[in-house]
Amino acid sequence: MKDLLKQARLDQKLSTRKLAELSKIDQALISKFENGFRIPTKKQVQTLAQILKIDLKKLLVAWYKVKLDKNFDLNSFAIQAITEILQEKGIEVGNDKKENQITEILDELEILKQKLTSLK
Description:
This protein is mostly helical. It has 2 domains: 2-71, 434 Repressor (Amino-terminal Domain) (Orthogonal Bundle), CATH 1.10.260; 76-119. The chain has 7 helices and no strands.
């Protein structure tokens, strides 16, 4: 996220001082965001995305990644817990979706095989 913020600021040809003025976020905080020493609030992320013309979805995903990485010990138990929470909310997890699709295809192939066998 820090690189995304800094690159967008440079692309817009803004100094940290000017960005601070436009965003009403302290210049020292902006510098800390860009150097990875602080994490902006969600409201600050939204403000910066708008001013720096960064896709909000892209910046929020980067923000959540940083927050999760800094605030949680992402060991196998934590990842399993997150996976289960997503499943409970009906959100497909990447690998599970692919595995489910493969299982469905294999099941369909088995049914077709049985039908062909019964025709003989």
